[in-house]
Design a protein that fits this description.
The structure is a homodimer.
Chain A lengths: L9 E5 L3 H10 L5 E5 L13 E3 L6 H10 L2 E4 L6 H8 L8 H7 L2 H10 L7 E4 L2 H11 L3 E5 L9 E4 L5 H7 L5 E5 L3 E11 L5 E3 L3 E6 L2 E7 L5 H18 L3 E10 L6 E8 L9 H4 L4 H9 L11 E9 L6 H4 L5 E5 L10 E10 L1
Parallel strand pairs in A: 1-2, 1-4, 2-3
Antiparallel strand pairs in A: 5-8, 6-7, 6-8, 9-10, 9-11, 9-13, 11-12, 12-15, 13-14, 15-17, 16-17
């Protein structure tokens, strides 16, 4: 069942945003073609692939044709509809396995999964009503964060509950949707691990990145992270434990909180991204094999590439009209620009990023 | 006249081989789209661009439509027909300027150009007949190399004249075509300089690569080259002199002979490639900006990128069925694979390359 795709084979990618685009750009040097499927006709990934389908994820005929034209399917986003994944899985291998999505699409099932496999997470509670919320705040304390169970990203669908915040207002702020309440732990910093696992269970990870957010959106990833070596190892082991438990194939991102201070620091998993991840974009320029190529290798049955860094690096996202600084960034030393080819620079929208290298 | 193209603009590329493909893959991270024009329906570059035209270089209607669809035109090969270049130039900027091609397409005009600007080359003579050849061998001596004036590459259209070789046979071996005879200088090594020049005359070059050929085809490029720093500087100055004299826009490759020994070494220009060059493929993985991106930047009116290396590197071409070693190469440390997506692995055909990095 687990096949090795030779050069000339075709990867199917669900989703045509910047992640799909960078996956396609990384498949090409392996001699692999890409067929991108996305309902958005202005998908940036359409411009760099050998074939694309612009159709709804509910279009059964288009999905059948897509499945017939590719040798394996992957996706750039975790909210692939269940029916879409099921229809494709019946016809072609889909990696990572869509059963993983049904866990990671929902913060409750994701947290239950992490607890079950023995990975530390922050205290939390399930919130299905205002009464649940009141009880959960009693139990967990303030400050805490209320997050919708599904479809949250870049700070959307979440609100902070501080000492004086009204709980009914908070619950309405997230649309009174099924939610979780998470304790707000005292943060030393946020880091992430980008790992990859093959069919046969080989696991490799890149060095841990230290991430800074602005307005809940990733702003910079810096490697190396300013954490002790023991936490690097611990992060690696957490990533491997998660990937093994999922029987994962492909790249996954694990967002981690570093909590506590001094000798008493601890890693807690914030969330899992079953895909390539923004905090791994630095690998494009600081490693010989990027997270994108690593993902393509894993789903194509290739051996994983070397994850060693040749340089230190800071990745900075270009959000909204920050993309207009490209001409100033272009001549800077040791600087690599990545522009996503999106038509419209809305505020906060991820338009590109820049990697700046320095000597190890 | 010299415009700066913003992200979203379209680069037209004549030629859909591996160089066109890697140009297109390098334009994408700058947010630039590519329209590839090539008569070969199996062109590898067609798989990674937003638009392609499969038509003859003599198809005036197709060329008009191509010109109307792009913001600038460049090419991956130096034998663009004059009429094709002229038709496109009348409608859109073409870089490097096609007038340069008329010089570099012909070994005689190229050598005359180099002599005129004061760049050293090996002794040579024009050969238009067997009588010319006899007289030239008298003048230049043996061994020498007889090369057709036009359309030679990878050792095609050339033959060596050793101490005992018959001149008539040699002349017939190159099809009795208009030719040049070149003295075979005593070689220390062969190196190349990959430089880039902008509209405004800025010039940057990557470090000199040392090149090994097998059967007249490039096998490896190693950086740094084992030559003294003074020759690195001299190569840079030769590259700049050539680029300035051409009022060049884009990347050019300059192949150089290192001749003599010890303290008495000298650089001679072998030939000029008015395009990205095989001996510059190492820049894809050892620099933040590759020769391909540098070329796109120059023709798009962008500032040139940093040419500094972060690593030492050896580039090895994968010729013919050597491409089948990809699965063994893939997991090797610090190794980056580049497969061109060609359908058929004919003997000696350039199918891909691999860059192996090591610490500076």
């Amino acid at each position: 069942m687990s096949q090795t795709l030779s050069p000339g084979a075709t990867i199917g990618i669900l989703g045509g945003g910047q992640l799909g685009r960078m996956l396609a750009l990384s498949a090409a040097p392996l001699g692999l073609n890409c067929h991108v499927y996305c309902p958005d006709e202005t998908s940036p990934a359409f411009d760099v692939c050998s074939q694309f389908t612009c159709a709804s994820y509910e279009d059964a005929d288009a999905l059948d044709m897509f499945a017939a034209s590719v040798d394996v399917v992957t996706y750039e986003f975790e909210n692939v509809p269940d029916a879409t994944a099921a229809q494709l899985s019946a016809q072609v291998e889909v990696y990572p396995d869509p059963s993983i999505l049904s866990i990671t699409q929902d913060r409750v099932t994701e947290k239950q999964f992490l607890e079950k496999i023995g990975v530390d997470i922050a205290p939390w509670a399930k919130v299905d009503s205002l009464e649940d919320l009141r009880a959960s705040v009693e139990k967990i304390g303030r400050p805490a964060i209320l997050k919708t169970r599904r479809f949250g990203y870049d700070g959307k669908g979440q609100t902070t509950i501080g000492p004086d915040d009204d709980l009914q207002e908070a619950y309405e702020a997230i649309g009174a949707a099924p939610a979780v309440l998470e304790a707000m732990v005292s943060l030393e910093c946020e880091v992430s691990l980008i790992g990859a696992r093959t069919h046969s269970g080989a696991f490799k990870a890149f060095d841990v990145a230290e991430n800074l957010h602005e307005n809940h959106i990733l702003k910079t990833s810096t490697v190396p992270a300013d954490i002790p070596p023991s936490l690097q190892v611990e992060a690696f082991e957490m990533g491997r434990k998660i990937a093994d438990a999922f029987d994962y194939v492909g790249v996954l991102g694990v967002e981690l909180f570093v909590t506590g201070t001094g000798g008493d620091v601890q890693l807690l998993v914030n969330e899992i991204a079953p895909r390539v991840h923004n905090s791994g974009h630095w690998t494009q320029d600081a490693c010989t094999v990027s997270q994108f190529e690593q993902h393509i290798r894993a789903i194509a049955g290739w051996p994983l590439g070397d994850t060693a860094r040749h340089s230190d690096v800071v990745m900075t996202n270009l959000l909204g009209d920050e993309i207009e600084t490209w001409a100033d960034l272009a001549p800077e030393p040791a600087t690599s620009i990545h522009i996503y080819g999106k038509a419209e620079a809305r505020p906060g929208r991820k338009m590109g990023h820049v990697n700046v290298l320095s000597r190890l």
